[in-house]
Amino acid sequence: MEKLKDQTDDLLDDTKNNNDSSTAPKNKRDLLITITLVTGVFVGASSSGMAIGYSAVLLPQLKLNSSAIPIDDHMGSWIASILTGSMPIGSVISAIIIDKIGRVRTFKIQSVVVSIAWIIVACAQSYEIMLLGRFTAGVASGIGVVVGQVYFTEVCRPNIRGILSAGPFISYSIGILIVYALGAVLPWRLVAGLSTAPGIIAFIIYSLLPESHIWLVKQNRTEEAIKSLTWFRANNVEETQNEIKQIISRFEHQKTEERINYRIFFEPQVLKPLCITIVLNILQTLSGVYIVVFYAIDIISNIGIEDLEINDMLVALITALVRMLFTVVFCVLLVYMSRRSFTLISGVSGTVFSFILGTCLYFNIKNYFIPVCLVIYVAATVGLLLLPGIMLGELFPIKARGVAGGLSHTIYSISIFGVAKAYPFFKENLKIYGIFWLFSLSSFLLSVIAFLVLPETKSSTLLEIEDYFLGKNLFWMNRKRKTISKENAAQCDKLNSSL
């Protein structure tokens, strides 16, 4: 390792000498790099958003008498839910190949797989082939979730990580809006064919991105790692030198540590956030945020707005547009609002408006307040849509984040699959008003549990969050405060910023 350090110092000196005469405007390079990264995030994630929203426009067309692939509600529930059911498979595949072939190559594979999935759907002549296409799209989405989180965390400066962490959520909403708009005017096969475009564009963008410097260091490809990081830091050689040395030092230290022991799951700093995350994620899926996406047209047609002479597809488009706009708003609010306030406002609002909507439907009240209330409910619950990503990024300690986060995301995907699959059962047994009461109850329980046990993580260091869970804290309001050395906290964050 000492030899590697000496070699690194020589390479860094060469890099500094080569860039001393560089006249490239740093601000312009920073802007170009940020635009390239953000575009990659948005385009890649929008393809997954289109896949999520596609069932809402596909199922009504397949249920027509003239459909080439006739289906019933049970078959439709499989088409809607199998996407999320196969996402954990993609996550596992990504976790296996991401360290073997690199981040960028994994991105490219994901882009190819999602394009193939759309081609399968577009060419499907049977129900089984349709399921295969949706299954493949879920695998691609699972791959994208893992590699996206790892790559952009590794290569980005801290000041743009917030933008990139919010990017996928905004992109999902944009993708849903796009596929709703296409489905309103085009047949489902053509919509699927056009949906291959984001995957192709993403492949081109990913081809322009350098490999993660952290992965290159782990492969002992130090010279390439320095070139990669120099590109990401806009030829800031001093910053590159500091980061590369920190990464090598960290890597050397990690090689002397034992591999992660799965008994760590029973340590309080892992077990507590894992339990909180799993419970809140399950309640989030039961609050209806994804059911309304998967079955938008069906839900809108069942709330009786046809008597108001309002087009179902128009209302679905409005909900998608509102979801996208409020995703942007909520992502901005994340910078200024506490995480607990953010979650509680969204949870309580979702509770109130879904209860009002269910009650109006129970008493068969039919006026323009119904679609307005639905749109407000969609806007209010956008905060709950962002909650799993926030918890994954902030609650788990670095040492167990990959494994614990992967387990949490797998259970989350399975819960979305289960709820989406159960929608026809809910509709038959609870009726449409009962479904919204279920949404209300779940949002209420989520709000109560979040109020009791969800810690405030805004402006807290990773060390402070881990220290909180290490304490004998059950309820946030009764937490026992510990004093943490500011020097240690700063050192922890500086060290983790290079990972």
Describe the structure.
InterPro entries: MFS_dom, MFS_sugar_transport-like, MFS_trans_sf, MFS_Trehalose_Transporter. It comes from Aquatica leii. One of its GO terms (molecular function) is transmembrane transporter activity. It is found in: Membrane. Residues 1-17 have a biased composition (Basic and acidic residues). The protein is mostly helical and 499 residues long. The chain has 2 domains: 24-209, Up-down Bundle (Growth Hormone, Chain: A), CATH 1.20.1250; 260-499, Up-down Bundle (Growth Hormone, Chain: A). The chain is 80% helix and 0% strand. α3 (73-101) runs antiparallel to α4. The chain is globular and about 65 Å long. The model is unreliable at 19-25 and 483-499 (pLDDT under 50).
Q: What's the structural blueprint in terms of helices and strands?
A:
Blueprint: H1 2-19, H2 26-62, H3 73-101, H4 103-123, H5 127-155, H6 158-185, H7 188-194, H8 196-208, H9 213-218, H10 222-232, H11 237-256, H12 268-286, H13 291-294, H14 296-302, H15 312-336, H16 339-362, H17 369-380, H18 382-394, H19 398-453, H20 462-470, H21 486-496
